Amino acid sequence: MDKNKILRNLEKIVGKDFVSNKPEDLYIYSQDPGASLSRPTDFVIMPKTVEELQNIVKLANAEKIPLVPMGGGLTLSGLVIPVKGGIVVDMKRMNKIIEINEYSKYALIEAGVTTGQLLSYLNESYPNLQPPVPDAPPSATVAGNVLIHGSGYLSQKYGDHGAMINGLEVVLPNGDICKLGSCSISPFWFARGPIPDLIGLFISSFGTMGIISKVSIQLFDKPKFREVVFGLLKDPKDIPNILLKITETGLAEDVILGMQDKPDWMKGYVFVIAYVTGESQEEIDSHIKTFKRVYRKANARYMKTPDRIRNVYLEKPIFAAAAADYRKGGGFEYVGANMPLEKIPEAYKRGAEISKKYRIVPTLGSRLIGGTHNIVMFFSYSFNRADTKDMENARNALHETNKLALELGGIPWKAELAGQQLILEKMDPNYKKLFNSIRNTLDPNRIMNPGNWEVNQ
Amino acid sequence: MGGESIITLSEKQDWRDIVHRCFRCGYCKFTLEYSDFNCPSYKKYQFETYSTGGRLWLIYGIISGEIQWNEGIANVIYACPTCGNCTENCRFEKFNDFLVDIIEVARAEAVKNGFCPEKQKALLKRTENTEYYNPYGEKNSDNTELKKKYNLPGKAEWVYFIGCTSNYRQQNLRDATLRFLKKAKIDFTLIDEHCCCSPIIRTGQIKPVNDFINYNVAQIKNAGATKIITSCAGCYRTIKKDWLKFGADYDFEVFHTVELVKQLLDEDRLKIKSEYKNTVTYHDPCHLGRHVGMYEIPREVHNKIPGIKLVEMRRNRENAWCCGAGGGVKIGYPEWSVEVSQERLIEAKETGASVISSICPFCRTNLSDANEKYNMGFEVIDLIEFLDQLDIEIN
Ligand SMILES: Cc1cc2nc3c(=O)[nH]c(=O)nc-3n(C[C@H](O)[C@H](O)[C@H](O)COP(=O)(O)OP(=O)(O)OC[C@H]3O[C@@H](n4cnc5c(N)ncnc54)[C@H](O)[C@@H]3O)c2cc1C
Ligand code: SF4
Ligand code: SF4
To answer: Looking at the 3D structure of chain A, how many domains does it have?
Structure first.
């Protein structure tokens, strides 16, 4: 690869200021905040328009250089660190909020719009609407999140964020621009079908199918009142029962569970954190009463919450990074596994055992996705970034946890390279064959985030 | 970076022990409610490298030996006006307080390793020059003439520490302050002051800092003063925080002129008799706002001026957008620096104000430069200057 020539050509596309192969930039884009080791990057580029993006893809395809699309780079699992070198395409200059449709309730945005930007824009200009955003830091992009089956405080009620995609504009590996969803037929980006649904191909494929330039996502009515109702459960075995009882009421917006040994007062309990919403305080009070009853019947104790803790949980999105970085070592990564409800008690028990084996304070949690259809289970490992052994220890714990999730019938979410391979080992061979043949058709030169979802034939 | 630490962040905290705690999560890029990117450096360059997180990771990379100093890294470390938005918005307690300090210490390390950019070097060269003792390269004024002109005593309760920007670039502001102090019958004098060291500390060129501080402290003590007053946000922050950090031995109180004005108003000793019929928006200087938390006093003073309509910019107080002049950016990146001020003026335009006020000569200079360059049509003024235009009575 003639790097100078490529740099000059990339500069022609985006201008000198927005492409770099300077060592300081490559150093930063060769790593992410998770436990993965750094891997070399050749260039970083920041397109502003879809035409620029298209020209980058065409150039990479002609030169057979890998492209790695990046939003906030916050998955923690190294998904935006190139595996085979190449160009990291940092999407954050494509940051236009193009349309908010108050009738069909969607936001049409460019792929670099951050969750913080959309949230604040809606708060300011459309205070009755709320976006589906994760509890990730605000510099995560909406696109990066929905494209990995992200989830958040609206997911118990409305499903995972991938399911909330109405439409995509994609630059395919050959440079074609393709619209998917109702927008391929209509000026309204209001729905995904009813046409053959190809949007799924781009979700959790980690940039291997093309680069998304625009996304339409559903928006939701914002409740006037929201309250958090805490319950304490002694035995993880009771988790399925209490979750079924909670979802039966149809009253919960979000339901999260947490079991952690630190701080000390949390040890020995599973915390049930359910959110209720309503149009009035009376409605909220009545929901709280219902929940107290549900908790009682399900072997749980209602916990009156000090304002200090209540306020932390009422912030939307929650400042999750504080709890995650409880060791104050600047690092944490988690296995987020999608699990069937019946396996959650075992996941808690064995997850805690893995933590202890690796001398990491057990920090486990979960969130319901669409009632009890799916539970995301978090096995979180905090580490000290300044200690390479500690990082390696975290990687080993993560790997063992991925194996556990698969053994229990779950699937690791946004899995890092080693986790992807574990998933592929278990996958139906014909699924793999189909996936690979679609990929080869779309991307015969294998320029799109190669190394990810690599099916060994 | 090895070697001994030049500055410990506090008694117990060495910066090298905490720099790796940056998670690169990016809260520091935003305003509090995420309405905009509020880190001028990230907003300009847009690569992650130029966010606070990028800077801290580079600094950690150097400490851990993964990367070595080069001009590019030094450029990243210097392309930051030390506005403190990161300190305000990073959510990690007992770490966020030190972000600007860490950037400044890294600059000191860049200097030590021979990577201080040329333009910033000029600051030190001029400041150290015994003809100047100021970063502007102006012949040092020992202020004897001013003392004569204003009939100031040799010893007094207060010293007005003029600061280099007011003394050599914003003399109108200096003279307005002198007139105000006289009208207020403050028992004050001037000293032969050398630079407070703000520009050289901010750019990591700290070698002569102790000598400068000792000289200034000795001058102040010789003047018999127990109180220092300054009209410059940069001097205020530096005297109040940095001099102590560098081990200065002083027990005088430090005031910004706006605090004195507020006190006189509160005590009913200052009466403003004429009106100032303008719509004014106040720009929070970073050194007075985020760096020391003074937000309300200047607003209260503005609001006491009869006829004034004080309006707020979208980003104000803790969320204020920096003017872009600080941290050596004005000298190191003159064009970008003025662009940052332009963004502030565009925001000021949205308020309908015709006047933008501040209480920092450095902000005033940069906002005026942008005002002129981009034909924005504002009157850029320091609070003390419009008090000077009004009919006031102080007893
Ligand atoms: C403290 C913390 C809390 C978190 N909490 C949650 C949570 O509650 N819910 C949740 O879902 N996640 C959570 N996450 C995980 C993650 O941060 C988020 O899912 C985040 O939104 C991912 O977005 P991103 O922009 O950072 O994506 P990135 O990491 O930049 O990208 C994710 C993947 O999508 C690909 N990609 C990105 N942009 C494009 C594009 N334009 N076209 C094609 N492919 C693209 C990338 O190549 C990568 O494979 C959390 C993370 C942290 C650090
Ligand atoms: S400085 Fe603080 S807010 Fe910014 S990236 Fe680092 S940890 Fe996050
Ligand atoms: S001080 Fe200001 S410009 Fe510098 S890194 Fe922090 S937020 Fe950015």
So the answer is: 3
